[in-house]
Amino acid sequence: MSTPLIGRNAVVQMGGTTIGYAKGCSADIAVDKIEDFQLNSDKAAILAAGNKHFKISVDHMWIAITYVTQIMAGTPVDFVFAPAGTSGGNPKITVKNVVLLTHNMTVDQKGIVGEKITGEGNDYQTSTF
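Now predict its structure.
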């Protein structure tokens, strides 16, 4: 039996620059179902995958104060997940252009702290470090 990997939190990026950190993160992929039936049949004549949705959920997130205005204006960000850490060969999952949909936040002198954040991006990329 191999040793399980320790989960790692996500990094929040804007334009390739790290602007914050998140923990308690998950990424979900959902696909719309395209289904059409023909007369006198109980089986789908067309069954296919439609539009994809890349959703994220975050328990806690910190963003640097210099990016608060952009975040509040709805500027998309990227979430880079590193489930096994950032050493060479480990998996890296990036949800691109995430628009934050819901969040509770507090603001301090150095940044914003958000809780219970949800968002949706337009791309999901897997690679390695």
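The first strand starts at residue 10 and ends at 14.
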